[in-house]
Amino acid sequence: MLRGGARLSGRGPGVEAGRVARPVPPAPGSPRQRRRAVEQVDRSAVSAVWRDHRRWSWAAGTAKRSIAFWRTAALASAVGGAVLTTAAVQVGLNGAPGRALATAGAVALALVPVVRVTRLGRARIEAWTRVRSASEALKAQVYLFLTGAQPYDGPDRGRRLRTFAAAVADDVADLAGMTLGAPDPDTPVPAVDDVDHYLTHRLRPQIAGYYRAGAARQQRRLNRFRTAEFGIAAAGAALGAVAATTGAAGVGVWVSAVTVVGASITAHISAARYEHLVVSYLATARRLCALLEEWEAAPDRSPAAAAAFVRACEEAISRENESWLAAWTHDREPG
Question: Does 205 reside within a domain?
């Protein structure tokens, strides 16, 4: 009780009765306000670049599926054409069935070079490899940014990321139409802000889920086609031996058909580059595993060491991408 009958209210100065004191906002231009502004710019930059990565990734996936489809179609046309034309000779070209088989076989064989030129030509292969390269480059920069690795270890890192993304967009500006059908990216920016999160969300999935799984998948495909190639070669040798010993003309005509089928399978194996992918994927997986083991055994856990580790991993992934790009673009007729 104060003099004059006044009571002690317990409120601080300047606080009216019945109201709760609110925190005073930071003064304009204060360090905290500037820090918040920078963080907002950084979040905006990395979100925009991640969306660009997802759009280019969608375009690369679409192009890859198209190329795989038309490569299979070319193989099927070559095999079907060889079988149909040989069957036409067996049936006889004087009758309607024989002429129908011959026509179908000729059409199938005629489609093979058309598909290879228009759907598997150099321009389409290069477009696919370029959009994939753009997607992977943006993805790598996002992870470098999130972990604060060079060149994203300074106060202007948001500007640096946007500058890099703009350069990538300029490099593939002529292919921007390939992203027009892309759905709105719904995958959030990876929840990565340190090395542990990087290992969980990037490195370990890349080793096990992409490189090792991809190598196993390509090896299975290679094994299937090698088995078919061997079977066709054995069948051709057997037919040739039978034709030579018996003089059966009906058997001899199939030797050329089997030869065409075998050559088509061999060309498909070469065009798909299964062997190169297996070797490249496994080599990159081994390199990343070695980097991971070095990091786990290293005593230095400083921010600089962590940033160097992340950058080394991304450089290893980038080298694999460059090797992949060179393998797909060095031939004159990739399809």
Answer: yes
